[in-house]
Amino acid sequence: MEIRFAQLQCSSSSVTMKIDDWLIESQQSWGVFSTEGDVGEMLGQLLTQPDDDKALVYSGQITGADPSQVAFVSLQQQQQLLENILAQDDSESLGYTDPKSTVFRVIFDQCHDNNLTHQLLQQLDLTHLSQSSFSQLSTGEGRRVMLARALATQAPFLVLDEPYAGLDVEHRSTLTMYLEQLSRTLQMLVVVSREEDMPQWIEHVALFSQGKFDSVMSKEQWVNHPVIHQLTAQSGQQSEELLALIRRHRHSAKFADPVFELHNGRVAYSDKVIFSGVNWRIDNGVHWQVKGPNGCGKSTLLGLIFGDHPQCYSNDIDIFGKKRGSGETIWEIKQHIGMVSSALHMQYRVNCSAIDVIVSGFYDSIGLYQKPTQQQVAIATEWLAMLHMGHLAKTAFKQLEYGQQRLLLIARAIVKQPTLLILDEPYQGLDYLGRRLIKNSLELIAKEQLTQLLYVSHYQQDSLDSIEHFIEFVVDDAHQGYRAVVSGPTIK
Ligand SMILES: Nc1ncnc2c1ncn2[C@@H]1O[C@H](COP(=O)(O)OP(=O)(O)OP(=O)(O)O)[C@@H](O)[C@H]1O
Q: Does the keyword Nucleotidyltransferase apply (predicted)?
């Protein structure tokens, strides 16, 4: 497919994209790097929207694109599919898996071909999950299903927006090889916001800056391009400003040790054990990173702390000086915890404005149901300005790009200065600058002990210097599922 964008200008309610002239020749695959602004979602939507239903209005021209021959994968698409499935599927409450929402069916429905479905399940390491419900998958498992689903359409042109987000180290490396193989027969646009995610085999790179098509270059030129150094310096300064804001409103509560303790923790579902024999103690002021492959139970473990996992009452847990299940309310626990995760992002389906999302952090609510104080609104306004979203204060959360939504949820978690800040893959969907800004800020927050971090990320590059304690899930050969290994300077 030969596609040309000419004098293109396109705006959604929160993002604008401009391309003066960009030619994607037939057989060419491109890497797209965007420093600021979610162009991947917009490119994908433009190339897949049918002529008779142009949800995204634009001026200028897109020639040569055939929407029926393009498949698109993004975090927003995954969120959308999940929402659709949850809206139709009430099987969870009835205690069984709806056959229409199994991993197998979600892929099969795109091709109606048994062999192809099984082949894709196997290639994307999903065979063991084929009868699981899509809505119960872990983040990384869900991302692989989305890719399989796009490939099942057998479209010759693929738009992959952040295909590596949420994948563990091993699956990222297999995906790299897999995409390289596919690139011999398919055309691809691979949109990334991490320089290390730009696939080796890509020959052409398009650089976007603040939503504007900036330049094209060869892979060699990209590797030596000064943009990354410029961005690093810029984000460092912004993080200092963000920290100053957090310091000014400092007020987190302190508890006696341990802040949290899990004794012989175990989570299992009818068909499988996720982990067992987990002993973990979190003392005051100690930051932790939770590690392990996709599906090992990292989010599940954090859900036991946060209190939204159904099996938190069947486990022996002490939190903030109380035994779980001893009459405390979930709100008493939650008021000391800030949380960012894909599950929370999914739950945040109410349609309040951007500023209300941040303010809702003071009340631990999804949506805002109380009249905030002037001070709370002032703090939230400062946060919006810091995140370059001041102009979007009144925009509805649902109308924002996935990355913008994620930034708001991070601000929502930090704003009340919780004792524990739980960050489960916080950077998912953020552009380069957004990620640097948040990572630098977390580093400073941890160093100054402004709050205590529990942190999950699959990228070595995301490690925070201030985190020296790790809990890592490893396969338990003796039993089913995983066990946890804890390490750090104070662990004997
Ligand atoms: N209701 C359920 N029934 C069966 N299995 C479930 C259910 N809910 C979750 N799981 C499984 O529990 C496992 C652990 O999920 P979890 O989200 O904790 O993994 P994770 O380590 O955070 O993974 P990732 O790195 O992909 O985010 C996954 O394999 C998931 O499919």
A: no
